[in-house]
Amino acid sequence: MSRMIFVNLPVADLETSMAFYDSLGFTNNPHFTDETAACMVWSEAIHVMLLTHAKWRTFTNRPIPPANSSEVMLALSCENRAAVDAMNEAAAANGGTADINPRQDHGFMYSCALADPDGHVWESFWMDPAAIPQGGATG
Asked: VOC domain: from which residue to which, for each copy (predicted)?
């Protein structure tokens, strides 16, 4: 089996979250989806498991952070700048929050940060590795 990542996220409303991730370009894998969880696929290697709060609590007793907190920012690569903007716009139009941080434009890399309906932070980005300045990226 190849190496993959399954990001597990607690969600308040499974159907709303599934629709949100679908609007960003994820697809649902019905083999790992039921009334308590949904597997949303970004690529062959990246899957997001949306878990109802009740399902989440079967895995851990740790508290679910409030929606206005930030524990981690997950970054998804996009084909171009327009795709970054489209993902950000889709987030805003489908129950999420766009531009939760200032947009970053470094010439060789462009990104926007957004939050899903439960406040989980994502960053869509495009990068042209051939255009990275000599000596490494600056930030």
From this structure: 3-127
Report how many domains make up the chain. Answer: 2
Q: Which residue has the tokens 């903007």?
A: 85
Residue type, 46: I
Is residue 67 included in any domain, yes or no?
no
The HSE-up count of residue 76 (CA atoms within 13 Å, CB side) is 28
Contacts of 48 by beta carbon, 8 Å cutoff, 6+ apart: 6, 7, 8, 9, 21, 26, 39, 40, 41, 42
pTM over 0.85: yes
The CATH code of the domain that includes 104 is 3.10.180.10
Q: What is the mean pLDDT of the chain?
A: 93
* Long-range Cβ contact pairs of 98-106 (< 8 A, separation 24 or more): 106/137, 106/138, 106/139
The answer to whether residue 39 sits within a structural domain is yes
Angle between helices 14-23 and 81-93 (to 10 degrees): 150
Q: Give the bridge partners for 49, in sequence order.
A: 8, 39
19 falls within a domain: yes
